[in-house]
Design a protein that fits this description.
Keywords: Lectin. This protein is of the alpha+beta class. The structure holds calcium ion (CA).
Length: 200
Amino acid sequence: MGKLQAGLQELNVRFTKDMGKLQAGLQELNVRFTKDTGKQQAGMEELNVRLTEEVGKLPARVQKLQAPCPGWYKMGNGICYKAFRIEKTFSDAAETCRKDGGTLVMPRDVDTNEFLVSLHNNHDYERYWIGLHDQREEGKFEWVDGSALGDFNHWAPGEPDGSGDCVYSDTDQKYGQWLNGPCSSEFHFFCQVALAKGNP
Ligand SMILES: [Ca+2]
């Protein structure tokens, strides 16, 4: 019985030592785990900050995709158009469009012409220069980019009557019909600008 008791006591001592080592090991693991968790939390917080920043930029990006035209220009048929409410002579109006990177409008089809009419949103009697004229040769109308008038036109009845070399659109009473008049007259005007490269 004496030997057995001595053996049991030794086992007990070893077991206690081993338990001590095990506890120390567990404690170390716990310390490491806490550190790692701290790092992970810091990482998550950084990620969250970055995500919040990116999400904050989204509305501006979406707006740019939806409205790729310069300020106040509206897109129709892949081109940007704007109705200017100030009144200028034909050449001053053309210069204003050039400064915006474009030209006076060249409505070469009925859809574009109707879109222009829709751009002016009150119902007063108004006249808008378009980019059409016969300044080089009387009766031979051409667009401001030098191209010929082509098949589509929207002359008002009796026009062009030779009363001037520049063409304006009557946006109200005659639903966008064209008339010629003196280039020195001061009317509103429409500009067009091509979409910036890189935009969809
Ligand atoms: Ca003329």
